[in-house]
Amino acid sequence: AETWVRMVTAQTPTNIAVIKYWGKRDETLILPVNDSISVTLDPAHLCTTTTVAVSPSFVQDRMWLNGKEISLSGGRYQNCLREIRARACDVEDKERGIKISKKDWEKLYVHIASYNNFPTAAGLASSAAGFACLVFALAKLMNAKEDNSELSAIARQGSGSACRSLFGGFVKWKMGKVEDGSDSLAVQVVDEKHWDDLVIIIAVVSSRQKETSSTTGMRETVETSLLLQHRAKEIVPKRIVQMEESIKNRNFASFAHLTCADSNQFHAVCMDTCPPIFYMNDTSHRIISCAEKWNRSEGTPQVAYTFDAGPGPNAVLIARNRQAAARLLQKLLFYFPPNSDTELNSYVLGDKSI
Ligand code: PMV
């Protein structure tokens, strides 16, 4: 029998939303109720590395996450694998003397090995980087010709926020209009060099797993929150325009105002859900107060904060520049000294994250 292996390795950072995605209009295709905007972190911090391999000796698709085999039977993995396979093209790997025709891909299996460069116990979301990396690596392995936006529409079917990790810099996920979801994809707003003064600090408040998964949380919010309807229709469309402007003009005051307001509204929408969902805790609230007070006392904003749905109520703090970041770290260390009972476990410095 033939014995060859073709392998591709890719690396993808995670992203942090500054205008949040919360609520699906279609759960299977993962189509959102509003556009969102995120910043992609530096690959040196919080990224996933995935190696995909194909060989005629493989007898089924298999995947290992951080060295442990996991099941690929879930619909989200299956959707991504099916969509990429449908786009596979002829491959001629001269170096290894391998030829794979478009038709061969139908009967070839893949092995996937994925690693996160941050401890899973740090309680930081990894599905965004994970699915983006998986789809990108498979596309390269199978010589798919789609560009990153087209690939983002596939990664979206693994995890919504994953579609934004196919680009660096600031990225917009357009909700799209059509029913099949083909126009619900990510586009780059500006690249990673555009605003490289910003420094992103992630304060790990707690590494506990979130109590409500984002899928369940979003479903309950869509079903019960009137505030979400208002947010999706009236608020976010205007904010998206303003946020794109702030980013393009590197207007930190406006950027910080929009980022903080949108994080707070996202958590308000969670509270407006029946039963209410709490993702933040006392420590998160104290970090918000600390940032608000500091920004006010300086007259001009020095830091923006944003909190996700977990896992863990971790704070993502975006400082306007390195000086502000250094002062912010001093403040965090002062208010939340290490090994105290304030629950702030560590600070992950995303140096020059954009
Ligand atoms: O892609 P998911 O299902 O992990 O949802 C992510 C939702 C938020 O992180 C809370 C917001 C966002 O836009 O990333």
Give structural attributes.
alpha+beta; Ribosomal Protein S5, domain 2; Alpha-Beta Plaits; five-stranded mixed β-sheet; four-stranded antiparallel β-sheet; 8 helices; binds (3R)-3-hydroxy-3-methyl-5-(phosphonooxy)pentanoic acid
Structural commentary:
It is found in: Peroxisome. This is Diphosphomevalonate decarboxylase. Its EC number is 4.1.1.33. It catalyses: (R)-5-diphosphomevalonate + ATP = isopentenyl diphosphate + ADP + phosphate + CO2. It comes from Hevea brasiliensis. The protein has 354 residues and is α+β, with helices and mostly antiparallel strands. It folds into two domains: 6-190, Ribosomal Protein S5, domain 2 (2-Layer Sandwich); 199-350, Alpha-Beta Plaits, CATH 3.30.70.890. Helix content is 34%, strand content 23%. The chain contains eight helices and 17 strands. The chain has a five-stranded mixed sheet with strand order 1-6-11-7-8, covered by helices on one side. The chain has a four-stranded antiparallel sheet with strand order 2-5-12-13. The longest helix is centred in the C-terminal third of the chain and has 23 residues, at 226-248. It is globular, with a radius of gyration of 21 Å. It starts with 5 loop residues before the first strand and ends with a strand. The model is unreliable at 349-354 (pLDDT under 50). Residues 17, 20-22, 36, 125, 127, 159-161, 214, 308-309 line the site of (3R)-3-hydroxy-3-methyl-5-(phosphonooxy)pentanoic acid.
